[in-house]
Amino acid sequence: MRLGRLGCLCLLAAGVYAGDVRMIEQIVAKVNGDIITLSEIERMRKTLRAELQQQRVPAAEVEKILRDRERNVLRDQIDQLLLVQKGKELGINVDPEVTRQLAEIQLQAKIADTDKFHQYVREQSGVPFEDFKQQMKNSLLTRRVVQQEVGGRIAISKAEMEKYYEEHKHEFVREEQVFLREIFLSTEGKTPAQINLIERKAKDLVARARKGEKFGDLARDHSDSESAKNGGEIGWFKRGELRDDVEKLVFAERRNFVSDPIKTDRGFLIVRLEERHEAGQASLQEVENEVMERLYMPRMEPRVREYLTKLRQEAFLEIRDGFVDSGAAPGKDTSWRDPAQLRPETTTKAEVAARRKRKLLWIVPIPGGKGRPAAEAATPDAASTQAAKP
Questions:
Q1: What angle do CA 189, 223, 376 make, to 5 degrees?
Q2: What is the mean pLDDT of residues 94-105?
Q3: Looking at residue 376, what is its pLDDT?
Q4: How far is CA 320 from CA 15, 30, 154, 316, 356, in A?
Q5: Do domains 11-152+294-359 and 176-278+375-384 have the same CATH topology?
Q6: pLDDT tens digits, one per residue of 36-82
Q7: What is the reported pLDDT for 385?
Q8: 176, pLDDT greater than 80
Q9: Is the pLDDT of residue 373 over 80?
Q10: pLDDT tops 80 at residue 384
Q11: Which of 195, 230, 240, 268 has the fewest Cβ atoms nearer than 10 Å?
Q12: For the chain, domain boundaries
């Protein structure tokens, strides 16, 4: 996704020598040793609009949603800076995870050449590769800080879970469902000889999966389906939502079942039964994770805001007149000081570029995909899978 031209305030300033003209940006906030510029605020606003358009939000609702969310743009920028700074202070290292995620993206994009991959990332994300990598690092770092400093301190007892389950028991009555992964090897446009080789490959993948290799890894590395980027996950299915031959097969099997290659008019399909829900009342043990999440999430958000308020109280924080931090700490003086006594109100683009960029992380879409973020694409519509009914 293109993030568009920088919407920054551009001024011309005379340098030491005649003809030394520099582009400068206005500083909106100072957060400890880092800054937030006007161009970053404008970029975030554009990103919000692009995100809503990507989600196909009706035009009539876009402006209202934008008004509501734009009030928190500066707050969100300050939040991220504070969390990244705290992560560094705590010595949290996410470099191995960054390397792994980038390697996965490169593998899914099927681009072996490093320079070409960097160019691909730039084209898809709209930012240079190093900036994209830094965005990914900042995103992982903020999540780790929140998990370690906030989430890890929220305790939910067994008694609370049992009480919630009993009070909401009717919400855990299940229809019979199966959760599947797939590997699809396309035979479209192939010769008979090539089709024979593809069938042999499908049988080999089945054998490897049954011997214990991770089905998700095999799907990611070999499947021709869009679901490959999610490890082959295609989601939950009820009776009547799958091809007749696939339905008859998987509803008769137990968890971890891996099918033989199933011949279709477009290729060979392999399915794995990850999980199943029997019809009727689900036990607490079966829905324990769901109950835990329902109890956990309402506590998480206010605790995160409390933690960010604490970080604000401890931080050196100045906000330029005309801008509002909607997450401001009560009683904290964040008024803008006389720049002549402290630091200049503006900074050059080169100086800003030298700092770590703070932008919204977009997941690079995979070629042939729909450009959805990975989290959203994890459970595609049944109609988009090879196993689903046409």
A1: 120
A2: 92
A3: 39
A4: 25, 9, 36, 14, 21
A5: no
A6: 999 888 888 887 877 887 788 887 788 888 888 888 989 999 999 99
A7: 61
A8: yes
A9: no
A10: no
A11: 240
A12: 11-152+294-359, 176-278+375-384
Summarised one tens digit per residue, pLDDT across range 207-230 is 999 999 999 999 999 999 989 888
- pLDDT for 219: 93
Joined tokens for residue 351: 């100086």
Q: Is the pLDDT of residue 310 over 70?
A: yes
Of 26, 33, 21, the closest CA to residue 7 belongs to 26
pLDDT at 52: 80
Distance from C-alpha of 45 to C-alpha of 28, rounded to nearest angstrom: 15
Q: Is the pLDDT of residue 268 over 90?
A: yes
CATH code, 11-152+294-359: 1.10.4030.10
- Give the fold, CATH level 3, of 176-278+375-384: Chitinase A; domain 3 (3.10.50)
In the predicted structure, residue 14 carries a pLDDT above the cut 80: no
The 3-class secondary structure across the chain, one letter per residue, is: CCCCCCCCCCEEEECCCCCCEEEEEEEEEEECCEEEEHHHHHHHHHHHHHHHHHCCCCHHHHHHHHHHHHCCHHHHHHHHHHHHHHHHHCCCCCHHHHHHHHHHHHHHHCCCCHHHHHHHHHHHHCCCHHHHHHHHHHHHHHHHHHHHHCHHHCCCCHHHHHHHHHHCHHHHEECCEEEEEEEEEECCCCCHHHHHHHHHHHHHHHHHHHCCCCHHHHHHHHCCCHHHHHCCEEEEEECCCECHHHHHHHCCCCCCCECCCEECCCEEEEEEEEEEECCEECCCCCCHHHHHHHHHHHHHHHHHHHHHHHHHHHCCEEECCCCCCCCCCCCCCCECCCCCCCCCCEEEHHHHHHCCCCCCCCCCCCCCCCCCCHHHHCCCCHHHCCCECC
CB 98 within 8 A of CB 135: no
Cα–Cα distance between 34 and 122 in angstroms, integer?
25
